[in-house]
Design a protein that fits this description.
Layout: E1 2-10, H1 14-26, E2 31-34, H2 41-48, E3 54-59, E4 75-76, E5 79-80, H3 82-85, H4 96-112, E6 117-122, H5 130-143, E7 146-147, H6 152-161, E8 168-170, H7 181-190, E9 197-202, H8 219-228, H9 231-239, E10 243-244
Helix pairs in contact: 1-8, 4-5
């Protein structure tokens, strides 16, 4: 059994980034995805210096400032705005060429920093929308990157496109009532024995110095961090002969 523990939101705030680095150095996280339009140079350099982690781009159209010159009508105070940019049904109003330009800029931000990018996923799973998925999959295919799959239907689409992806995503380790070592072990027991590489989505972080208004997911980040570094989790992985993989293995 092979698991990729991928930490989302690197770069959202330096405090969150430090927590993710702790989850890599002291815990089971072996992969992280970066909010390229938000990450500071110091955090990115610290991540690049780590040898035991694969790094991807957390494609983003919902938080922070764009890296390209988007039409101001889609922004609020120069930042992405779900209220202005998205249909009531959820999908972004942007044309695919505009989405592509922004995603290329985000990928380029990491590539220019010397990061060997391995994969793509997205903030708030915006690649579940067809117009976003098409763009992201094309970029992944052109650059030889893997992608996070969100469903069997998305896996089938990525197979058809020729884009590598894990066998499945374990997304239940998220939310106020779904975190902690007990909850995580319950999720892992439910997929024990399945074939293929599975990704565990996680959102660890620290809160000291993190403004409360920065994220609704606040105390939960440190709770996730504790679980991901716990001796109980490490013992379960060893007892069940689980290989900690990264996106280079996908």
């Amino acid at each position: 059994m092979k698991l990729v523990f991928n930490a989302d939101d690197f770069g959202s705030h330096p405090t969150i980034s430090r927590g993710i680095i702790q989850a890599i150095e002291q815990g089971v996280v072996r992969s992280a995805t970066v909010l390229a339009n938000m990450v500071d140079d110091e955090s990115l350099s610290a991540l690049a210096a780590l040898s035991q982690v694969s790094v991807g781009v957390h494609l983003n159209l919902t938080k922070g400032k764009p890296l390209t010159s988007l039409n101001p009508r889609y922004l609020e105070g120069g930042k992405f705005s779900r209220a202005k940019m998205y249909f009531p049904e959820g999908a972004p109003l942007l044309r695919e060429r505009v989405i592509r330009a922004e995603f290329e800029a985000q990928v380029g931000r990491l590539a220019d920093a010397g990061i060997a990018i391995t994969h793509l996923d997205s903030h708030q799973n915006i690649h579940s929308f067809v117009n976003v998925l098409d763009v992201a999959a094309d970029i992944a295919l052109e650059r030889g990157l893997a992608m996070r799959t969100l469903s069997p239907a998305m896996s089938a689409y990525l197979d058809w496109k020729g884009v590598r992806h894990p066998a499945m995503l374990i997304s239940g380790f998220f939310g106020k009532n779904n975190i902690g070592e007990v909850q995580l072990l319950s999720l892992l027991n439910s997929v024990r024995g399945k074939d293929g590489i599975m990704e565990v989505m996680c959102h660890p972080g620290l809160t000291a110095g993190l403004p409360r208004e920065h994220t609704e997911y606040y105390e939960e980040r440190e709770q996730e961090l504790t679980a991901l570094c716990s001796s109980g989790l490490k013992a379960w992985l060893e007892d069940n002969s689980v290989h900690l993989a990264d996106y280079d293995d996908v």
